[in-house]
Design a protein that fits this description.
- The protein is an alpha/beta fold.
- The chain has a single domain (5-242), classed as Aldolase class I (TIM Barrel).
- The chain contains nine helices and eight strands.
- The chain has helices at 17-30, 44-53, 80-85, 96-100, 106-119, 135-150, 176-194, 211-215, 232-242; strands at residues 5-9, 35-38, 59-63, 88-93, 122-127, 159-162, 200-203, 222-225.
- Strand 6 (159-162), helix 7 (176-194) and strand 7 (200-203) form a beta-alpha-beta unit.
- Helix 5 packs across helix 6 (135-150).
- The longest helix is centred in the last third of the chain and has 19 residues, at 176-194.
- It is globular.
- The N and C termini lie close together (9 Å).
- Bound molecules: 2-phosphoglycolic acid (PGA).
């Protein structure tokens, strides 16, 4: 069976540390194969401690963002080195909520990716069009993001997540055939333009009910899951089906 990646983005959830601990313990019980969990920054020390205590060797920690450099006068920012101390091996970069709620530019996203790659942490770069439109119009947007965010980065320690923004939210319509086509296009573009072959995930309202329509496509290397990752029944079901 194809080895797939599944990454759970908790976003700004759950609302207290006790619930974060319970969710992590639950995920740890079901992770018979490697999974990636991205809790909010403040829970990283807690889950990192639990990971050691529970010997959760199949859980890899991700952060939901990171800044550039190692230290300095950057209020509110966290460096790759700080994350690494808590065992973080992946960082989500350029998520649509960072781009459009926090106004992050492609220039900043590029700097974050380079800094993380140089540090040895794998960025999970999110790309995707905001509005549902034709494949050609969507590809133009995605290609522009890839060009600007990666520039001429030729490093293989990278994961791409194709997340059409219109499908993010947990309960939005998804279009598997559009996404598979886009994922194939991203892969061939990265190979021809940058000579790199990296995993490309799908993200956007993935849940246990709709996952089957994506699983039939070998082109999809895995999934970035938001809302469903906070519900225990969804979490266990997705882990069982995807990996
Ligand atoms: P969703 O979020 O699964 O809630 O749509 C996915 C994401 O934003 O990465």
């Amino acid at each position: 069976m194809k080895k797939r990646i599944i990454a759970f983005n908790w976003k700004m959830n759950p609302s207290d540390a006790k619930s974060a601990s319970a969710l992590f313990r639950f995920a740890s019980k079901y992770a018979k194969q490697p999974i990636i969990v991205a809790p909010p920054f403040v829970y990283l020390p807690l889950v990192s401690g639990l990971k050691s205590k529970l010997h959760s060797k199949n859980i890899f920690l991700a952060a939901q963002d990171a800044f550039v450099g190692s230290s300095g006068a950057f209020t509110g920012a966290i460096s790759p080195a700080m994350l690494s101390e808590f065992g973080v091996s992946y960082v989500i970069v350029g998520h649509s909520e960072r781009r459009y709620v926090f106004g992050e530019s492609d220039q900043l996203i590029h700097a974050k990716i380079s800094g993380l790659q140089d540090f040895g942490i794998t960025p999970i770069l999110c790309v995707g069009e905001r509005k549902k439109s034709s494949f050609e119009a969507s590809w133009k947007i995605v290609k522009n993001q890839l060009d600007k965010d990666l520039k001429h980065a030729k490093k293989n320690n990278l994961i791409i997540a194709y997340e059409p923004v219109w499908s993010i939210g947990g309960n939005k319509p998804t279009d598997a055939s559009h996404s598979v086509r886009m994922i194939s296009k991203i892969k061939s573009f990265l190979h021809t333009a940058y000579s790199i072959r990296v995993p490309v995930l799908y993200g956007g309202s993935v849940n246990c009910k709709n996952i089957d329509k994506f699983l039939q496509y070998n082109e999809i290397d895995g999934y970035l899951v938001g809302s469903a990752s906070l519900k225990k029944d969804q979490l266990s079901c997705l882990i069982n089906k995807v990996i």
